[in-house]
Amino acid sequence: MSERLGLRERKKDATRHRLMQAALDLFEERGFDEVSVAEIADAAEVSKKTVFNYFDAKEDLILGHAKFQIEVPAQLVRERPPGQTPHDALRQQWFERLAEHHPVTGLSDNPGVLRVIRLIHSTPQLMQRQMRYGYQSQQLLSQELFAESGSELSARLMASQIFGVRQELAVANFRGITAGATAAERYPEAVKEAELGFDLLENGLGNLLRREELYQRIPGYQPCGLTLDIGPLAVVM
Q: Does 67 share its domain with 52?
């Protein structure tokens, strides 16, 4: 029985992959709007009905990977072990995925992944759908944090900050890859940037970039300790 189930799942995975590959090829060649679902089905040698058995919408032929990730952050927080904060759980996962060069981190130099990302960035409908999935994922994380904290505002703030950091880190990695670096070459810098991002999340912004007093910005200036007494004002010279 288990062997039959395994074979069935492999066949389903193969069909799903064939559909996604056919869609990617056609979208790159002619543009997203110029390709119908029926044409994708023909290219993959399946029926149009089969396409919708696997994908809810035309966009999901490209964004299926993003849709599968929607619940991951909330699930990770929900299932974290005792003694671990949500921040620690999400930080640990990010570094694990960096080491794997996972596409969600922007660190993948896999040619197929780069083709998908470039297509998404050049297609407004795909960008909108990707943003929608990201927002849904953030909302699920916010709901999970609210269930534990009891504060809706703090949960929303935490979720938005976490997703903001993840997004900026992924963009920085993708820019490094598209500039010509391999994932292995980019990895050490990606780790440093992730440490910075998650450290900011953990420690906050309170003491960063405190502006110096004007006199402290004058090279070589040292206060001499004299005080001018002008009534309610006292000026140190």
A: no
